[in-house]
């Protein structure tokens, strides 16, 4: 259940991105063909992005496109404004988010980081953290970079995460970067048993998303706030 994080602080606005999370599963896929799963997930993610954009714009002609730097956007053509969108995938999970403002989404299946990667990616406080915490921090950093149209390489150790509230499996807060290399952003994080999913939007908006999730066990969409 996705719930509000509480009252919106005075002087701040509320933004409600729409999140779509899907699981790709093909029980008939031969073991030797599972190497192709990554490509299939990317294709499904792109298809989902087009559906999300059509819903967000109420325009069946809108299509997923990318800037010269690789940042995705909804191309409505005919000099109409671009629709902000972000995509992500990890193993057989993929996610798409749309919002009225530029945003970034990142989904990560929990994974271990090597000692060398921990030292390269995390500050000293996170190096000793558990796998779930490290994966969540990685996801937040990725979403933060995407919300600014940036990607790796970037020194993730310069990114600061400040949690403001936590309720069950969700939390929210602010993200900043050292010397204001990137402007501050708000974040929302959801941690499940299998993966974590982070959304970032630059500015001081409180993020309260609408979530649509689909798995093989749950063969329909659910929308929660």
CATH superfamily: 4'-phosphopantetheinyl transferase domain
Shape: globular
For the largest beta-sheet, the strand count, sense and barrel status come to:
7 strands, mixed
Strand order of the largest sheet: 3-4-5-6-2-13-14
Tally of distinct domains: 1
| Sequence of secondary-structure elements | EEHEEEEEHHHEEEEEEE
Give a brief description.
With 225 residues, this protein is of the alpha+beta class.
Write the layout of secondary structure elements.
Elements: E1 14-15, E2 18-23, H1 37-57, E3 63-66, E4 72-75, E5 83-90, E6 93-98, E7 103-109, H2 115-121, H3 124-127, H4 131-147, E8 159-167, E9 170-177, E10 185-191, E11 195-202, E12 206-207, E13 210-214, E14 223-224
Parallel strand pairs: 1-12, 2-13
Antiparallel strand pairs: 2-6, 3-4, 4-5, 5-6, 7-11, 8-9, 9-10, 10-11, 13-14
Describe this protein's structure:
With 225 residues, the chain is α+β, with helices and mostly antiparallel strands. It has one domain: Alpha-Beta Complex (Ribosomal Protein L22, Chain A), CATH 3.90.470.20. The protein has helices at residues 37-57, 115-121, 124-127, 131-147, and strands spanning 14-15, 18-23, 63-66, 72-75, 83-90, 93-98, 103-109, 159-167, 170-177, 185-191, 195-202, 206-207, 210-214, 223-224.
Summarize this structure as a short list of keywords or feature phrases:
225 residues, alpha+beta, Ribosomal Protein L22, Chain A, seven-stranded mixed beta sheet, 35% strand, disordered C terminus
């Amino acid at each position: 259940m996705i719930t509000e994080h509480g009252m919106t602080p005075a002087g701040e606005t509320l933004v409600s991105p729409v999140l779509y999370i899907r699981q790709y599963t093909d029980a008939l896929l031969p073991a030797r063909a599972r190497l192709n799963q990554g490509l299939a997930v990317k294709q499904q993610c792109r298809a989902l992005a087009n559906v999300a954009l059509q819903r967000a714009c109420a325009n069946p002609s809108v299509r997923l496109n990318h800037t010269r730097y690789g940042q995705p956007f909804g191309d409505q053509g005919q000099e109409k404004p671009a629709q902000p969108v972000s995509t992500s995938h990890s193993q057989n999970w993929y996610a798409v988010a749309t919002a009225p403002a530029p945003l970034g989404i990142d989904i990560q299946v929990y994974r271990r980081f090597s000692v060398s990667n921990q030292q390269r990616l995390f500050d000293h406080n996170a190096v000793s953290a558990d796998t779930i915490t490290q994966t969540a921090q990685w996801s937040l950093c990725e979403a933060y970079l995407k919300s600014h149209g940036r990607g790796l390489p970037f020194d993730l150790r310069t990114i600061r995460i400040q949690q403001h509230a936590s309720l069950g499996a969700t939390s929210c807060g602010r993200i900043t970067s050292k010397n204001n290399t990137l402007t501050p952003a708000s974040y929302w994080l959801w941690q499940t048993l299998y993966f974590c999913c982070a959304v970032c939007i630059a500015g001081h908006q409180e993020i309260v998303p609408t979530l649509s999730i689909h798995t093989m066990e749950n063969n329909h969409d659910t929308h929660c706030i």
